[in-house]
Amino acid sequence: MPAERSRPAIHVCITCNRAETPVPLDARPGRRLYEAVAALAQTRALDCDVRPVECMAQCSRSCTVAFSSLDKWSYIFGDLDPDIEGTADAVLACLDIQASDEDGLIRLGRRPPQIRKGLLARIPPFRPER
Amino acid sequence: MPAERSRPAIHVCITCNRAETPVPLDARPGRRLYEAVAALAQTRALDCDVRPVECMAQCSRSCTVAFSSLDKWSYIFGDLDPDIEGTADAVLACLDIQASDEDGLIRLGRRPPQIRKGLLARIPPFRPER
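Output (structure tokens, whole complex):
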């Protein structure tokens, strides 16, 4: 497997909308969060893929991000707000937390405040054997 | 990669409890759902892994199951009840639905009634390139 295919991935929903009023797709909070996270990851030259995704089926808990890494737990978080200072940084901090745990656990006590209470679900590693 | 490591996986939470009253761990609805799904998969000699898992962080939507396959979307469903007839069969039906879709989508219209409204989240494939 080429190295770039095993880099951890952050999926950011670009269609997430925090308001009930219609917002054009290119100005959605989800889109802005994606752009902020992607820009910060690029600035820091992080070894990860920040990927836009259209809907992860948690629209009522917008904005949503998911983390997946080879042989680690996958996580999905919601209730993120790109207008709260430090949110993009908090997303990237979870990447570090996941990388530092053998199973990829992102434990409550280690999460930054912007993302702490937003856990929506976690799914075990696809391949349990290492 | 050995073949057995690329088989699709069904994760069933064995600690899920549908009642507010305490239930011993070995009698939890999640445990019973896991045993029913695993037994049915074995009877049918299905090419999949049915794996017990302790908590996928959706306790308020018990019982929960997740599906993961290599290079396909991951799904997590909740509100499953092992005491409703056909529930284990419905879980295995989703495996077929996922296998028949190139991206692993489990579309609403194709889901059995026991699982139709229980979608909690979906996460894109870890590796987007095929």
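The mean pLDDT of chain A is 91.
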